[in-house]
Structure formats: structure tokens, C-alpha cells
Amino acid sequence: MMHTVAVGASAGGLATAEGLRRLGYDGALTVVGDEAHPPYDRPPLSKQILSGEWAPDRLPLRPPTELRALDARWLLATAATAVDPGTRTVSLADGEHLGYDHLVVATGVRPRRLPGAEAPLDGLHTLRTLEDALRLRSRLAPGRRLVVVGAGFIGAEAAAVGRGLGVRVTMVEPAPVPLAHAVGSAIGTALSRAHLEHGVDLRTGTAVARVLTDPAHGQVTGVELTDGSTVEADDVLVGIGSLPNTEWLEGSGLPVDDGLLCDRYSAAAPRVWGVGDVARWFNPLFGRPMRVEHRAHAAEHGLAVARNILDAGTPRPFAPVPYFWSDQYDLKIQAYGYLRGHQQVAVIEGDLDSLHFLAAYRTGDRLSGVLAVGMPPRAVRPWRAALAAGRTWSEATSLPATA
């Protein structure tokens, strides 16, 4: 009987398992995950869970009955430690060895940590797991002081939640304009304005030199910045990006470089596939390799790999339009495509001052991305279709306005 092993029990691993069963796979199926929880939704961690709007019981991606219906062996709270593609064997931390016919690598990412602050400290946080979110949530209260290191989307969402709870928030960002590397300077400035208007102390062009602590109690007391200033804090949230979980692949011979390197079919080697955050695959729609860290992408990716496992003779390229969203204050931010490395950005509808706009991004001679803030679905829909169709910049910018 064929045996498929998915290492990673989050959205990507679940989507692969569901896709296999839905498409008629009747072989053995094992899903390995290092967290104790069955698959759960991560985007709400920095939004509804951190704010207290949701209880943790709303996070599971599927009820237990649907997981049981997959007829899979779930090995939770169990880490994979090595893989041997030659013998097609995965080694686990508990000493078990799993033979496989197909291996799906869906191990996701982990937060980067501040150099020199790797040791556990009371009040020093990252935000990736349910436990991370609940720990930080328990400490957020009116009048407390939170420093958010990094003004990316996770940090910005946490800052917005903190202000909504009456927390005094300072956000520290080394770049002169937050998110400028991805969305452009003008739009990064506009999005930053929302934080300033809600009372966030935004410090740009400076970084954290060291975390200040009370050694007697192992408690964070603030941060010292590279500009020489200090910021007092009860809690420090580090949101400076992530690293793909590929250490367990060392020595396997599988190609790794900022993720598991995969071809256009999401294959890293014969019978080895990459799914979700950990996979850097070649997206033929955009003509470039990319690694996408978003929940919707992981689900779509898992289904595509399931299809290719079952259609090994005629695999299909995985060519999606990446999508993510962010909720900050009363702003709904949506982005489609690949915004990094763009050469031009143009506001197509609305205006930056009102924070209701749609912006289009050009790379080469084609439309490469769209970002919408506070815009209705009808305004975004034709642009998403243009991205999926691979429209040129001139074709896309001739689309009629929806307003």
C-alpha cells in the first residue's frame, strides 16, 4: 500500500491530506506535527485571539469528526529530525522511523529572534503559536507599555490591537519608512499614518541595540536603540521576520536555500514535495521563484501538491496569484500578486490621504501586484483577474474604474 507522509500539521499539511482523500487516494497517510494541537488557524492570533475577541476554541481548522474521516495517523507533539531520500525514510524525535512513498514537507516557519536575546525572558515575546498569543494577551492591559520591534504586518497588527486595549505602544522599525521595501515609500508612509493617528510612538530609522532587563527577576524593562535612546517597556514583541524550518533536512541532499527549493510542480526531488511557508518554488505565472508565508497560499498549495502526487505522469505547474490580508484599526488591507521588487506603483482609485485606495504595481512590462485599502470587492475583482491572466501593464491600467 502506498504511504504518504506529510511533515507539518498546520494548514499546508491538512490541505494536502484533504486533497489526497478528496481526489481518491486510498493509501496510508501520516501527518507529523511538532505542536500538540490539531491544525488551527494562525492569522487570528495577531488579531482576534490577541484582542480577546475570540476564544481559542474557534481556531481549529476542522472539527475532530472531519479529521477522523481523513483516516490518517496524526503524530502530534512530535518533531521530524531527519530524512533520507535514498531509503525514503523520515526519522522522528521519539526514535520512530517512517517509510514513505511520497514525502510532503510542510514544516512552515519560525520567528526570527533578536541577536543576544535568545534566552527566555519574562516579557519578551514572539507571535507564531497559540501559546505565544495567549501569553502576550494575558499581559496587555490599559496603561501597560509594549514595544513592538518591526513594523511589518504582524507587528503592525499587534500594535493596533494593543492600542485598542489601551496599551501604550512604541513601534521600532530600522527602515526610514515601514514596509517601503514591499509596498513602496508613499504607501508605506500612508499606512504608518494610521498608527500615528491612533497614538503609536513610531520610531523609524533606528533598531534595537539590546533588550534591557532586571537581572534579579529575569524581566524585560525596555530596549536601548541604536540612536542611543531608551524606551521603557513591560513587554517587548519581536516581529522581525521569520526563518523556514529546514534544519531537519540538513544532510539529506535536498536543495535548501531560504526554504526547500522546488520546481514549478512543487517537487524538490523525486517523490519529495514542498508546501506552504517552507517551500520556495518557481511560480511560472510570475516567472520567478518565490516563498509565500500566507494562510490562503498554504491551503491552495497543499491541494495542488495532492493533485500532482496522484497525477505523477502529468503534473501541473503551480501558478497561483498570492494573496494576503491584514486588519489594522478599522482598515482592511488586501494584497494580490508579488509586490516586492516592483519598478512602479500607481494609485488607480481613491487616494492615500483618505486611506481608501487601490494601487497597482508594475515589474517589467506586466502587472505584478495590487494592494487595496478600504475598497469594496468589486473594485479589486478585475485586478485580481488581470493578475491571473498575466496582463501587461498597459492592458491592466486601461481597465475601467469601478467607482
Automatic annotation (TrEMBL):
Its cofactor is FAD. SUPFAM superfamilies: FAD/NAD(P)-binding domain, FAD/NAD-linked reductases, dimerisation (C-terminal) domain. The keyword Nucleotide-binding does not apply. The keyword Oxidoreductase applies. Residues 323-396 form the Reductase C-terminal domain. It comes from the Bacteria. Keywords: FAD, Flavoprotein, Oxidoreductase. Residues 3-298 form the FAD/NAD(P)-binding domain. InterPro entries: FAD-oxidoreductase/Apoptosis, FAD/NAD-bd_sf, FAD/NAD-binding_dom, FAD/NAD-linked_Rdtase_dimer_sf, Reductase_C. PANTHER family: APOPTOSIS-INDUCING FACTOR 1, RIESKE DOMAIN-CONTAINING PROTEIN-RELATED. This is FAD-dependent oxidoreductase. It comes from Streptomyces hintoniae.
